[in-house]
Amino acid sequence: MLNLEAEFTQISLSNDSKKALLLFYRVRELLESGELRVAERRDGNWQVNSWVKQVILWGFKYGEISEYPSRPFSFYDKDSYPAQNLGLKRDIRLVPGGSSVRSGAYVADGTVIMPPSYINVGAYIDCGCMIDSHALVGSCAQIGKGVHISAASQIGGVLEPVNAMPVIIEDNVFIGGNCGVYEGTIIKDRAVIGTGVILNSSTPIFDSTTGEFIRKSESHPLTVPQGAVVVAGSRPISKGYGRELSIHLYCPVIIKYRDNKTESAIELEDLLR
User: Fold this and answer.
1) Residue-wise over 27-41: b if at least 16 C-beta within 10 A, else e?
2) Which of 105, 106, 170, 204 lies at 20 to 30 Å from 144 by C-alpha?
3) Is the pLDDT reported for residue 272 higher than 60?
4) At 132, is the secondary structure helix, strand, or coil?
5) What is d(CA 146, CA 129) in angstroms, rounded to the nearest whole number?
6) Rounded to an integer, what is the distance from CA 163 to the centroid of its chain?
7) How many domains does the chain have?
8) For the chain, what is the largest distance between any 2 Cα atoms, rounded to a whole number of angstroms?
């Protein structure tokens, strides 16, 4: 992919819209095949391919609005980003009812997509995942193997700024219903996120097993540890009127790390699939 990155640099300097659009279509094809990713793990750490994000943005900049007739619900979008036609050759269940996978997203075989769900450009979904009803996988979000995203959960995308880390969900993570994961949060392997948990860069996580808070730093995004079981919680305001009135702030809490009881609950979910 080094040749493509070098080509991107040359086109950026020349500001040639025709060459930019041609490169965009090549990159879009590689994203859809899973050969190219917005973010990759290198030496154990996740790194952003910011040039890929910039090429994705070229698709919006240089594409033209086009009608996609589907009476009575036609839609109007950039001609560079039609919905994907997954086809029967792929081992993907796309259940009827309003779901859509946008061009430039990768969905691996063995994935189930329940209606209505939406998978946006730049997203990467590895094999054996469940994307449940009313779930969103946002632009550039990276989803590992065997991940279950339950109904009404939102995996936020981060397309801009181009150097920002997208949301990363590693392998065999379970995300409960009505959750939200935003702002470049990383959830490590086998973690369990309980119903209604919201994770973002401004809200620390309290680890009740150690008594410590897990926070985002200047160099590291908010990261849920491997195997952590996280539920919604709160913490009291420590000063001012909030303290006087016993006001609490939202705070996700790690109540334990994955054990046999947790495994049994997850296995039940798999059987229900």
Assistant:
1) bbebbbeeebbbbee
2) 204
3) no
4) coil
5) 5
6) 16
7) 1
8) 63
